[in-house]
């Protein structure tokens, strides 16, 4: 088997700790770590309190959720219909239970300082919802019956 020449030869690496440190730092730069910090339930509550948060998925509008007092929520896929529910914290997960669902759906919410995102527990990061805006305005929920609007 051919040997690597010069300072990278295995026989020389042990005698060049400065070179090894430099190569290690270059490897770290080539593969930057993602600084995903999970929001705690209290951080999530502070982030969402009395707001409507808008989400994109795969760079396209996906939906919005209005966060109300008492951990109540209203979700919409922005199609005019809304689902009402509640959220609760379970360790580092934020779980939602909607009126028409028998089981809670749990998410991780992340804040890296520049971007906030949400991932269903167990899902691929490529499918994350990305926060693209917040508003103090309530969702408009005319639903399937035109003229009906939900306001808390």
TrEMBL record:
The keyword Signal applies. It comes from the Bacteria. Residues 1-35 form the signal peptide. Keywords: Signal. This is Protease inhibitor Inh. It comes from Litoreibacter meonggei.
